[in-house]
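re: ur question from earlier - yeah i can do the single chain one, its not a big deal. heres the input i used so u can compare w yours
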Amino acid sequence: MSKNFYLARQPILDQNQKIIGYELLYRDSEQSADYANERHATAALLVNVLNQAGLQNVVGDALAFVNIDDRFLRHEIVDTIPSKTFIFELTSSSNLDELTVERIEVLHNKGYEFCLDASDYGHLSEYKKIFPYLSYCKIDTASFEQEYTEKIVRTLHAQDIKAIATKVEKESAFEMYKDQKFDAFQGYYFAEPKIIQDKKFDADQASLFKLCNLLQTGGDTSEIVESFERSPSLTLQLLRFMNSAAFHFKNPIASIQQVITLLGRNALNQWLMLLLYSKTLSTNGSFDNPLILMVKHRTDLMVSLLKMTKKNCTMSEQSEAYFVGVLSLMDTLLHMPLKDIINEFYVEERVKDALFEQEGELGELYSTVIAIEKFETEKIDAFVAKYSLDSAEFEKMMLLTIQSTTEFSKASLG
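and the output i got, formated as tokens:
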């Protein structure tokens, strides 16, 4: 069995597409169904999250859904777990004998919450005995006919149980299940591009694109400063950002010239790209939109993977890796074909090859990032083995990128 273990999280969103929780995944590449094993995986996950990573660093203020089975419920570690954040997710393999139901009732009375992962409609009826103790029920939408999902949601709501639709990867599926009164949704449907024909950049977007292009192509400093000065609101946001607690300069930053010198062109360009996402998606200047968080996580992973596989990589190469991560979701953000968006940038062929063909060094990094998001552990293992990466260092890197995204979600543009 592989010795490589990975921690990942998949977002769960409410009807307003706000993140309410994450399913935490922590397992090896062989994902044995016989996990005396399942119990060991859950214990390892909880120890890792609580002790090594830190609960706040992994989920922030959101809920943490973790898979358990009936054997784990009897483990003494359960009583040490904070009840306000963790949701125990019962697997379809759980044996609901009399002792298990009694244990669920005891834990429920102590304030612990439970979620049922329903694998099929017939199996669901076997769990009616624990309905009084459930807060959530996950419905695998790929396994049910529409007539059954509607019936299940009505049944769950009658028991005051929230219904979560899983494997929601399309906006159309989200709208359909929303109409069926599902309470929450798990999947990456929010990253699906919705192309609007003949859509053009608005003035703010065009201005940001021009500045990014100047920085990306090595434009004169004076031209960059002049572009900022033509946009007082943008300049004010940047100066507030530079004078925030994120930086520790001895003297306040008072000019764009100082910013370029102290922050550097690559970092400034990255800030502008994230600003583009925030301006388009955020209504309160914060970074708590799931698409913004996804692009943040992608870009961090792209750069971190590059640094692990190429110890002497240059700042220019790191910038290109970051660029691939940002551009990969730009069609979703702007509702325009990605090729049209890229025409507005000076983009190297290797960046295009990475985005459209997943070819070359950058393409390999990009495909690995997608595997991490989908938790395709065999592909992750293959990448780790190819570059002889230290498994502990790789796991630490994945934790740090999650932590960075969690901290980022609480930040604002000033």
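Residues 29-36 have pLDDT under 50 and may be disordered. not sure if urs matches, ping me
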